[in-house]
Known about the structure:
The chain is an alpha+beta fold. The protein contains 3 helices and 3 strands.
Amino acid sequence: MYTKEMSKAFKAIRAPKNFGVTLYDNPDFITIEIDPHELIALTEKQQIKAVEYVNKVKKTLEGFGAVILVVRKEINGTDN
């Protein structure tokens, strides 16, 4: 489902400093995965920018007709 046009549009969106997402291509949808440890380490203002970034990525990919699932990595006691 993830096309070259989507890739180009995604790469054109500038991620906030010290934050990024991972995209996973599935046959029927694209998953945007967020690392919660990266998000927690940001200031409140940076967190707002990070959420705005995720929303922009989501809307951009949806503009190409993709179905988007936003998830976060698991947080547990052994997770670093």
